[in-house]
Amino acid sequence: MRTTFNHTTNDTKIFKLQLLQWAQQFDDVVWLDSNPESYGDKQAYSNYDAVLAVDASTRIKTDFTQAFEQLKAYQTTTNDWIFGYLTYDLKNAVEHLTSQNFEGLQFPDLYFFQPKKLFFFRGNHVEIQYLNGVANEFESDLKSISLELKRRPERSRKVSNDIKIKLRIHKDDYFEKINYMLAHIHRGDIYEANFCQEFYAENTAINPLETYNKLNAISNPPFATFLKCSDKFLLSASPERYLKKQGNTIISQPIKGTAKRSSNKKEDAKLKHDLQQSSKERSENIMIVDLVRNDLAKTAQKGTVAVAELCQIYTFSQVHHMISTITSEVANGTNPIEVIKTTFPMGSMTGAPKIAAMKIIEALEETKRGLYSGAVGYFTPSGDFDFNVVIRSILYNQTRRYVSFSVGSAITAKSDPLKEYEECLLKAKAMRQVLED
């Protein structure tokens, strides 16, 4: 059982910074920020402006073996808020697939925890829920939070990012791999596949919180995430929702289609218009919409799968994106984990047909994806959930001193390897800027 407190803040931005700084003392942290000041008008399905979950009362960490069954048991038994992540490699729990590529980060395949302390932001109001056993800590916590920025040393505290970023796949190899993928497409093995490449740095220390704050300030995304799992960190500027359950309604919002921004208003409007009119980008998006419709149909009540929005252009700080929204209705009593299991991994990060695309991805990529192109989010006590797609993200294993970010693009019959490579560099820009200062 939980005790609920209410807090009103005069400066939400400062209180968020204080709260996140205070949270660093805990081993289990999930911070989700929809950056409503940038995207309030586009967050039709958002429940909260931001959420912080800290300090595990219970937790589950496991590899892919029977992962969804273990999660189902944990979620049902806990019957409370749980926060955590699903890595891309849970594909191996859903299909007869493997992940044999190099893996430098070593995150568990699945991780969730029941937080002792929860903070829900709506405007300048914060609803705070503590497990009854720690409710007596609320007043002293609030005092500590209010002192955080005063305690915090100046910016010199941050680690100087003298980072040498390397590419796991070099340019010529990238072109060769894309041509292999195009050969599969032209032969009819697949229609589309998302091909990803890793950028990484070894023997490197970063300040996770400072790095996240800088990344969030550059990108202002609607699905920003700071996650800490002991010595492992995710610093994410994700623009994409994977899946949300609200009551009996399921919502998926895949992104397919990207164009750069311009500081020139006229040129920026043209880039946006060209993206909207691009037959290549639209076909990419529509293929994934069909895949998502098929995935949602596995748990949907007959006739309820619908496309609420097709190929709409959304503008973000650094790019324009083409996004579609697909919804369905599930029957009362449908297990929430089953909805995730039958749609995972998300279509926007795999391809069509999904299983064939994942096999080709595994053969051509050089890195095990892990948490990249997985999902972070939460389950409510009533079994609702909301998860993002882990893209535009920096991953960090503090003990191994290994930093990584990956980017990808959708390959279709119309793909030009050079343009796909340039799209990857565009998507990598914010992460690289933050890490290399």
Describe this structure in words.
By secondary structure, the chain is of the alpha+beta class. It has a single domain (2-436), classed as Anthranilate synthase. Helix content is 33%, strand content 32%. The chain has helices at 12-23, 36-39, 67-78, 91-94, 138-151, 171-187, 208-219, 265-277, 279-297, 336-341, 354-364, 417-436; strands at residues 2-8, 28-33, 50-62, 82-86, 110-122, 125-131, 166-167, 192-201, 223-229, 232-238, 241-246, 249-253, 255-260, 306-315, 319-329, 351-352, 375-379, 385-388, 393-397, 402-411. The protein has a 20-stranded antiparallel sheet that branches. Helix 1 crosses helix 5 and helix 7 crosses helix 12. The model has no long low-confidence stretch (mean pLDDT 94).
Kindly report the average pLDDT value: 94
Residue fraction in strands: 25-35%
Please state the second-level CATH architecture.
4-Layer Sandwich
Note the gap between the termini: 45 Å
Task: Sketch the major β-sheet.
Answer: 20 strands, antiparallel
| Helix proportion range | 25-40%
CATH superfamily: Anthranilate synthase
CATH topology: Anthranilate synthase
Specify the CATH class. Alpha Beta
Which ranges are low-confidence, i.e. pLDDT below 50, for 5 or more consecutive residues? Answer: none
What best-fitting shape do the alpha-carbon axes yield?
globular
Radius of gyration, taken over Cα atoms and rounded to an integer in Å: 21 Å
What is the total number of structural domains?
Answer: 1
Q: What is the tally of beta strands?
A: 20
Helical region count?
Answer: 12
- Sheet/helix structural class: alpha+beta
